[in-house]
């Protein structure tokens, strides 16, 4: 769905999102590889004081600058989700990596206009790498254009999944069917794998049980780099998607993957 947001407004929002990522990167690194209090949420995922402090800071800056905008985040109560603009935030995507010292965690920031993700940021503070996607523009890595690979056949593709633990029985069957046909499969990476896809190093990412704050920021980045990201049925991702996500380097590879797992 194409957003009607004007070019001046979207550039202003993109600049704000980039400035917001500067703040979150600095905060995340003050906590990284330091002693942390780790709690287990109701969904059995971990959360730390870093997750909550970073999201609080993000929300405060958004509310101060754009009081009419909505916010959908992982760690705090959501607000004004019927607003024309909604920010979708994951302060630390990959908390398990974060608490175990792995430098592949990131912060995800998306700005939706009338339900469509116009702006997406994948920021990986330990690597000092930041992918930015803006609707209708070429995606960038640290300010330089990035592009997905031209590998269009499963047999030559590299497939990533954060962990096979995310799959139920049906999902695991589909993953095994798909991964049996690719050139290589690897595990780990969290949101970093999607950034690597946008830069042409990874060709497929296949996951389930994700939430909007896990995937909305990925959409403008991957699409702006030439890739495709949808649910497992090939439908566009939105706030009400079921959390089953497949990202591919190009339309031909995406189509082949959908057929392979059907």
UniProtKB/TrEMBL annotation:
GO biological process, alphabetically ordered: L-histidine biosynthetic process
Pathways involved: Amino-acid biosynthesis; L-histidine biosynthesis; L-histidine from 5-phospho-alpha-D-ribose 1-diphosphate: step 8/9
PROSITE patterns per UniProt: IMP_1
GO molecular function, one term: histidinol-phosphatase activity
Enzyme nomenclature, EC number: 3.1.3.15
Coiled coil ranges: none
CDD domains xref list: Bacterial_IMPase_like_1
Protein residues bound to Mg(2+) 1: 74, 92, 214
Binding site for Mg(2+) 2: 90, 93
Domain of life assignment: Bacteria
Family matches, as SUPFAM superfamilies: Carbohydrate phosphatase
Catalytic activity: L-histidinol phosphate + H2O = L-histidinol + phosphate; a myo-inositol phosphate + H2O = myo-inositol + phosphate
Keywords per UniProt: Amino-acid biosynthesis, Histidine biosynthesis, Hydrolase, Magnesium, Metal-binding
Cofactor: Mg(2+)
Similarity-based family: Belongs to the inositol monophosphatase superfamily.
Name recorded for this polypeptide: Histidinol-phosphatase
Native species: Antarctobacter heliothermus
């Amino acid at each position: 769905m194409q957003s009607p947001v004007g070019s001046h407004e979207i550039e202003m929002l993109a600049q704000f999102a980039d400035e917001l990522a500067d703040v979150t990167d600095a905060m995340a690194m003050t906590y990284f590889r330091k002693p942390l209090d780790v709690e287990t949420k109701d969904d059995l995922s971990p959360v730390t004081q870093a997750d909550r402090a970073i999201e609080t800071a993000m929300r405060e800056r958004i509310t101060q600058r754009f009081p009419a905008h909505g916010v959908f985040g992982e760690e705090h109560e959501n607000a004004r989700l019927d607003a024309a603009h909604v920010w979708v935030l994951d302060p630390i995507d990959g908390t398990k990596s974060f608490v175990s010292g792995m430098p592949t965690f990131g912060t995800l920031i998306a700005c939706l206009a009338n339900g469509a993700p116009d702006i997406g940021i994948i920021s990986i503070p330990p690597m000092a790498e930041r992918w930015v996607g803006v609707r209708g523009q070429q995606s960038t890595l640290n300010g330089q254009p990035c592009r997905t690979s031209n590998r269009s056949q499963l047999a030559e593709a590299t497939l990533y999944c954060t962990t096979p633990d995310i799959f139920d029985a049906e999902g695991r069957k589909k993953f095994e069917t798909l991964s049996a046909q690719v050139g290589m499969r690897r595990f780990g990476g969290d949101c970093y794998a999607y950034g690597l896809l946008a830069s042409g190093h990874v060709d497929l990412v296949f996951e389930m049980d994700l939430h909007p704050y896990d995937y909305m920021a990925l959409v403008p980045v991957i699409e702006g780099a030439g890739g495709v990201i949808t649910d497992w049925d090939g439908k566009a991702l939105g706030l009400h998607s079921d959390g089953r996500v497949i990202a591919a380097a190009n339309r031909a590879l995406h189509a082949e993957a959908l057929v392979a797992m059907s």
